[in-house]
Amino acid sequence: MFSFDRFRHFLTVKTLINPLDPTFPSVAVQLPAANWYEREVKDLLGLRPQGHPDPRPLVLHGDWPEDLHPLRKDFPLDQHAPRVQSREAFMRYDSEDVTEIPVGPIHAGIIEPGHFRFGAVGDTILHLDARLFFTHRGLEKASEGMPVQKALFLAERICGVCALSHSIAFAQAIERAGNVTIPPRADYLRTLFLELERLYNHIGDVGNICAGFGFAVGISQGARLKEELQQLNERITGHRYLRGVVSLGGMRADVTEQEREDIYQTLQYVKKEFKELVDLLLTHDIAINRMATTGILRLEHANDLEVVGVAARASGRSVDIRRDQPYAAYDRVHFHVPVYKEGDVLARIRVRIDEVFESFSIIKQLLQQLLDGDIRTNIPNLTPYRSAMGWCESPRGETVHWVMIGPNQTVYRYRVRSATYSNWPAVPLAVKGNIVPDFPLINKSFELCYACCDR
Amino acid sequence: MGWIIFVAFLQTATIICIAPFIQGIIKKTKARMQNRIGSSVLQPYYDLIKFMKKDAVLSLHSSWLSVATPYIVFVSIVTAGLFIPTYITNNGLSFMGDIILVVYLFGIARFFTAFSALDAGGSFGGMGSSREIALSAIAEPALLLAVFAVLLSSGTTKLPDLIASLTSDGWSWFSPSYGLAFFAMLIVLIAETGRIPVDNPDTHLELTMVHEGMLLEYSGRYLGLMMWAAQMKQLLLLSLFINLFFPWGIAASGNVSQIVLSFLLYVAKLVALGMLLAFIETMYAKIRLFKVPKLLGSSMILSLMAILLRVFE
């Protein structure tokens, strides 16, 4: 599936595969971005890419039997897989000067599991192997046969901090499959809540990045402002992480006149405080010193791996699906997509900071334009075996959901491509040549979530 | 003789007992400066009591070294405490040694901590100890130089003599070299207590740890002893700093009322200095690991200039 942003069209390449010999020619050498997708297809469906440069398993770990493919229809949901001798392999180093530093999958802080294996010379990183997918939940398998209304809740639970982006992407896919146009007010509300989600994420991330170099003022102010925004979310929708606000065909949560005023007041306050924090942070010598030139992701790498979201825009790759393939009410508001060329931690934090101010402006426009009217329409009977796609720019980048409808309003097949999935392969490239104690900072600046991969 | 034993006992008991309190003060101040309420200033005591009650889990790969190290570290720091004046000028063992011995006692503690971190073979312990040793190769001479810069004024390496001469000189002690030595010592103080911008005592990021990285393998009472020792070392460095630069009010004789007054003043100075450290820690961020030698280098240059000024006076 390719997106031609300039023409606002998608192009899908389909190929027939012989069921007796499920192989296909690999394109991972020509399109490095296809690397993970081909490995995943091999793990989950047993379609073998021919000539793939990396034969290691990706989603299923090495101790999963090689001939069991859970996404195949003949694999029952409750089947138990026996453990086999692990086939996991990491980069091997011949030199004695290289120290291997295994980190995780269990970490000291409260974060999700990921195993990182550094090959370091002294404190300088030579190579990083990142092993993810420790808690893959099989949500796509679980959704098969599930009524679409119920699957919406499943989509919402893919990730904690981009819950809304996932639910909207899923809802859009279903609405597109059913040829439904949602009421204009619902479009505006979706945009409004998506921007609220972006705000609490970006502001929280700016604070979190400060933890990478122990800047206490930044950490606590970031956490405090994020809390203000989450409390606002709770006042408006009843949920701090904006769950349960979307329904298929529109919205479940509406905004009253009073709540509109509340959003306006709270954001005014947060904007003022955030500006103070930004001024403090961007004039702090040590902070700038730690962030500048640290963890540079080069534009070639970003393009080759089709990196999306904040990381792409910080490396000079101007992609933003809100602008490139507008959805909800994004074609009715004005906003600017910040792009920086440096590709370092500082550029990534700057993109977030700029986007926070863009979000304030978008929300202001939305509050002015908000139309009266219905917030929901009904979803008609969906034609079985029709497939459709929904997309959304989550705080981490573009999130794409593809759904094939099954009989009786159920999901037949489902595939989620989150922003994190696109960006993880770029992290090992960005940390090369940096020092080991800078890794947490670089990792935080990408702010990738594990759950989005472990769907 | 009985007096000396009494003073030594008093000194040791004080150091052991108030070290966690100072840690609590620093933590509380930091919390307040970050808009947090923070835990009670007594929290470090509760933590230590909790650790002491708990059983320790040791790695199967570790040797006797891991068991012995907490005791060695604890004892060497307590011993060092007998050479550093706190609130009584003539402390326990000062007839036996001087500031150089103190530095080496700290060195023993550091050596064993770094060794035991390698003992269990964990990757973070190795990283922590290699960093600690690399940094201490510069931090130790910087500490010595800074102390020497002050000691030159009295021409002795014995701290009680220095303090006696400082307190009796009135205002004539002040000179530019003294000011330079003050800043040199402040930098060393931050580095040796493992605080921002050199190390981050509150971090959960194993990859960035220096001192905490070496303690990762410890648990229960061993961890308690190591933490207690670290708090005492912090207290001793603060005491050294206070008595090098603000010794006024320290009890020179055995008069009980004077000792009580001196003790109260000492605690007040400690609290003030602890708050200063917390303030610095909140204002600054951690610098890049490879910049730490430069920071310590600047401390050494300040000390050298202080010494030169003193020599040419």
UniProtKB/TrEMBL annotation, chain A:
Reported cofactor(s): Ni(2+); Fe cation
Gene3D superfamilies: Cytochrome-c3 Hydrogenase, chain B, NADH:ubiquinone oxidoreductase, 30kDa subunit
Alphabetical keyword list: Iron, Magnesium, Metal-binding, NAD, Nickel, Oxidoreductase, Transport
Binding-site positions, Ni(2+): 159, 162, 449
GO molecular function: ferredoxin hydrogenase activity; NAD binding; NADH dehydrogenase (ubiquinone) activity; nickel cation binding; oxidoreductase activity, acting on NAD(P)H; quinone binding
Annotated localization: Cell membrane
Residues reported in the UniProt entry to bind Fe cation: 162, 452
Residues that coordinate or bind Mg(2+): 140, 416
Source superkingdom: Bacteria
NADH:ubiquinone oxidoreductase 30kDa subunit domain mapped to chain residues: 8-79
Domain NADH-quinone oxidoreductase subunit D: 222-384
Chief place where the protein resides: membrane
Any one GO CC term of the record: plasma membrane
Membrane topology: Peripheral membrane protein
Protein name: Ni,Fe-hydrogenase III large subunit
Organism: Anoxybacteroides tepidamans
TrEMBL record, chain B:
Record-linked InterPro entries: ComplexI_Subunit1, NADH_UbQ_OxRdtase_su1/FPO
GO cellular component, one term: plasma membrane
Membrane-protein topology: Multi-pass membrane protein
Coiled coil: none
Residue ranges crossing the lipid bilayer per the database entry: 6-26, 63-87, 99-121, 133-153, 173-191, 235-253, 259-280, 292-312
Subcellular location: Membrane
UniProt-listed Pfam families: NADHdh (PF00146)
The protein's name in its UniProt record: Formate hydrogenlyase subunit 4
